[in-house]
Amino acid sequence: MSSSVEEKQPIETGESFMPDSPKTAGTDAMKADDEPIDPKAERKLLWKLDLVIYPIFFVIYMMSFLDRINISNAKIQGMDEDLGLNEGNRFAVALFVYYISYILLEIPSNMIIKKVRPSLYLSALMFVWGIMNMCMGFVHSYGALVALRFLLGVFEAGVLPGIIYVTSMYYKRHEFQRRMSFFFCSTVVAGAFGGLLAFAIAKMGGTAGLAAWRWIFIIEGAATSAIAIVAAFVVIDWPEQTRYLNAEEKDLLRRRMATDVGDSCRMDTLNKFSWGLIWPDYKIWLGALIYMGVSVPGLSGTFFLPTILLEFGWQAQEAQVRTIPVYAFAAGCMIIGAWASDKTKNRSGFILTGTAMVTIGYAMLLSQEGKSRAYKFGAVFPVFGGAYMVTPMALGWLQNNLSGHWKRSFGASTQITIGNIAGIIGANLFPPTDAPAYVMGYGTALGFMWLGAGCVALMAVLMWRENRKRAAGERDDRLSLPEEDLNNMGDSHPSFRYTL
User: Fold this and answer.
1) Tens digits of per-residue pLDDT, 401-447?
2) pTM listed for this prediction
3) 6-23+49-470+481-492, which class in CATH?
4) SS3 letters for the chain?
């Protein structure tokens, strides 16, 4: 469900643009704001922004995800034997310790990036986490591996919220879903590329006296740090700082963002009144549970896909290669789903469709006894396709239904922080003792997917009911509030309509 009001709310996860905003501009600038925006100039600006912003962010997050999950590729190349990862739950601990620091530092990181140049901040984080990843190739004890995984989480924590924050300053809300899904394709590219790289790097086993699994960390970490140096000169900064736009383009950006912000649905002041609207908002907490629920199948699958394929009967290098078509299928589902979702202006229906795909896949895996390897391999595709299609959609849907700077900032940070608990859950779903059937892992992941779907249904029903009440004028009593509060209500304003 959509409305003209609903389509006039940008994703505001940061401070409002701009030294020459309508509040501070002169009379001439205010007159210029009343002039219609040239569609041709606007399309040209969007093309330029897309080419400048997303390619480098795609690569940065791809390397972030690759360096996060390459431990799963290294595990089946001998790391488990060298470091004793098969003892008890050691591998699971090495996986989820990353998420402890990652979860704790996401919100503080976004507080820092507000005060500095994103190009320098994000590239510095990238350079250091690349070094951390390289160091994993030289560890000789399990304790050292765990410590480095914790530090990896420290320096990767600011990447996703930082990128969402920066990009939100350049695009209107209804322009964001396709771009977000394209951006999240970096995760499936990382998964597929990681398998291909691991297959190639495995041939280096013994070079310089180092095992193949060590070279996976060393080469991929070095590549990350090298790209970080380039990123320092390429990543876009805040709109008022960027060197990519001339004065005319900056003014056009300011004007189009200003037309996208309805004054009646703002929340630019953080006070007792606005906190009273933020904390109790069911959409933020349901959105966080949705993101956590739908992320468990994808993250657990990413961590353990090479191991699962190994259990299907392939050798290590064969298993690495066969991760590639799985991730390619997931990327296709992600792109097609995003296009169709934007076309129909609907999110909840597509998340439920993804849930159905995941359910089919896990049902096949839970009944795999006596089935062929082709049957088992085929079951993996709907799990990954459905899970990866809905992950960026869960993020976009919440942002679609929050309005105002502070509401969206708090909502985005809370959703990502709580949602990443899925990494801790997913890391513990496939212990070696459950091989080869992994009934507990598949069943638990499916249960969390249904948890997310249940929250989707509840949130859609509640927003549908609220839209009906607002259309019937049952919230118009809020219009009698003091002007200071009326202009600081965000999506609680009676004129706002929710997107289902």
Assistant:
1) 887 767 877 787 788 888 888 888 887 888 878 888 889 999 999 99
2) 0.77
3) mainly alpha
4) CCCCCHHHCCCCCCCCCCCCCCCCCCHHHHHHHHCCCCHHHHHHHHHHHHHHHHHHHHHHHHHHHHHHHHHHHHHHHHHHHHHCCCCCCHHHHHHHHHHHHHHHHHHHHHHHHCCCCHHHHHHHHHHHHHHHHHHHHHCCCHHHHHHHHHHHHHHHCCHHHHHHHHHHCCCCHHHHHHHHHHHHHHHHHHHHHHHHHHHHHHHHCCHHHCCHHHHHHHHHHHHHHHHHHHHHHHCCCCCCCCCCCCHHHHHHHHHHHHHHCCHHHCCCCCCHHHHHHHCCCHHHHHHHHHHHHHHHHHHHHHHHHHHHHHHCCCCHHHHHHHHHHHHHHHHHHHHHHHHHHHHHCCCHHHHHHHHHHHHHHHHHHHCCCCCCHHHHHHHHHHHHHHHHHHHHHHHHHHHHCCCCHHHHHHHHHHHHHHHCHHHHHHCCCCCHHHCCCCHHHHHHHHHHHHHHHHHHHHHHHHHHHHHHHHHCCCCHHHHHCCHHHHCCCHHHCCCCCCCC
